[in-house]
Design a protein that fits this description.
Length: 120
């Protein structure tokens, strides 16, 4: 399917990481999503019930970022994908990118991210 809704830069503070200070102090994370679904029914009818409410999706992502800490951003991406596929049945496939721009890697960089793609 080629139709998708894109949400970019959903941001919140999370406490994910393997180091004690990451769990104690937290840091900013951001998430980009592509939600693949058939947008024709909503486009023809102008009916919100025939698409995905992206405000609800964004709120779900913020809850996952700020929720239970995980060691890896890979695990956070997976948790977000499970939540979206579970809560929004019109989504057939999604792409989740989790950004951790302040990761403690000891060298200068602009961003570290992981991207996963999951199908229903």
């Amino acid at each position: 399917m080629s139709d998708y809704i894109s949400l970019t830069g959903i941001s919140a503070v999370g406490f994910h990481g393997v180091f004690p200070d990451e769990r104690r102090d937290g840091q900013p994370f951001s998430v980009d999503l592509k939600l693949f679904l058939d947008l024709d029914p909503a486009g023809r009818s102008d009916d919100l019930n025939l698409t995905v409410n992206y405000a609800s999706v964004a709120a779900s992502v913020v809850e996952e970022i700020s929720g239970q800490p995980l060691d890896l951003i890979e695990a956070l991406a997976n948790r977000i994908s499970r939540r979206i596929l579970g809560d929004f049945p019109l989504v057939n496939q999604l792409e989740v990118t989790v950004h951790k721009p302040n990761a403690p890697v000891g060298v200068k960089f602009s961003d570290i991210s992981v991207t996963i793609v999951r199908d229903r």
